[in-house]
Amino acid sequence: MTLLESLKQYTTVVADTGDIEAIAQYRPQDATTNPSLLYHAAQMPSYRRLVDAAADLAIKHDGAHGEMAEELIDRLFVLFGCEILKVIPGRVSTEVAARLSFDTEGTITKARKLISLYEANGVPREHVLIKIASTWEGIRAAERLENEGIHCNLTLLFSFAQAVACAEAKVTLISPFVGRIYDWHKNQRGGTEIPPDEDPGVASVTRIYNYYKKFDYKTQVMGASFRNVNQIVRLAGSDLLTISPELLEQLERTQAPLDRKLDPVTAESSPGDRLHLDEKTFRWMHNEDAMATEKLAEGIRKFHSDARKLQEYALSQVAMKAR
User: Fold this and answer.
1) Contact predicate 64/45, CB 8 Å
2) Residues recognised as catalytic
3) Does the 3-322 domain belong in CATH 3.20.20.70?
4) Is 251 within 8 Å of 236 (Cβ atoms)?
5) Do 38 and 77 contact (CB within 8 A), yes or no?
6) Cα-flanking dihedrals φ and ψ of residue 242, to 5°?
7) How far apart, in whole angstroms, are the C-alpha atoms of residue 150 and residue 246?
8) Are 192 and 210 a contacting pair, CB within 8 Å?
9) What are the angstrom distances between the C-alpha of 195 and each of 67, 167, 202, 208?
10) Cβ-contact 304, 312 below 8 angstroms
11) How many CB atoms lie under 10 A from the CB of residue 135?
12) Residue pLDDT, tens place only, 161-200
């Protein structure tokens, strides 16, 4: 049995890519996308038809070129999501713009629009996760959206405070970033590799998973942003893991036994008390984690930078269509 086959016994495998052919190859349950992944997928000749279709729809949208570009991006996200859902049985995560990370009302408006576009394409909201940054404002938006039946994936999650607040808000899913946590701690050690059994990214997800299961939170844990197969193997048993095609390939071609590492039964005896966080407590607790504050801010900036590349591409497509 391959590592990928073994992993699927304990964990829902999610493909972290916008490449529909790669998703079909590795047969994951779910898939996640973001502006960077979509930008690269949009350059592929095989997906030109989706770009053209999104541009045609955007041109019909009254407004300046910038507004049409934003419309194209929304349409492109949804069209890619619809295509992805043709090859997976589960859900696709579609991201709200990073510039809305501190805008609760703006996030809610954008999420509702994306869901309406999916539903207009015949996709029920149960098959879509709206991806939102795990800021206090993003968590509050997700809480309200969940009450409307719009399910959310809280991303850029680095601190335990973020995880607790998401669980209390009853969001569907969180995406703690294993690899970026590892990168920060490795940098603090002067670039020295960290032994696998001391991996801080793995330890962070393990702590969150145990806390959720111990106190019976329904929010699912989906480890993300992996740097190597070992990190994935050490989180076997997590509710979900979102994995790049490159690492999925390594898992598929490796024949090796795989034991479950995370388990709800053992989580019951994990240490720690139940926490309840108001805004002031959340902000202070998150602020006390230097890694989390730095990586959250950096992640929002990077996602916004990726989104601007996609927007520039969208503007070029709109300009071509408008000639």
Assistant:
1) no
2) 131
3) yes
4) no
5) yes
6) -100, 125
7) 31
8) no
9) 49, 30, 11, 21
10) no
11) 25
12) 999 999 999 999 999 999 999 999 999 999 999 999 999 9
Domain boundaries, the chain: 3-322
**Structure confidence by residue, pLDDT tens digits, 267-323:** 999 999 999 999 999 999 999 999 999 999 999 999 999 888 888 887 787 777 666
CA distance 35 to 28: 20
pTM above the 0.70 mark?
yes
d(CA 181, CA 29): 25
Distances 150 to 13, 122, 123, 296 between C-alpha atoms, Å:
22, 16, 13, 24
Q: H/E element holding 42?
A: helix 35-42
How many other CB atoms are found less than 10 A from the CB of residue 302?
17
Axis-axis angle for helices 160-168, 290-322 (nearest 10): 70
CA distances in angstroms from 127 to 88, 219, 244, 312, listed in the order given:
10, 16, 21, 29
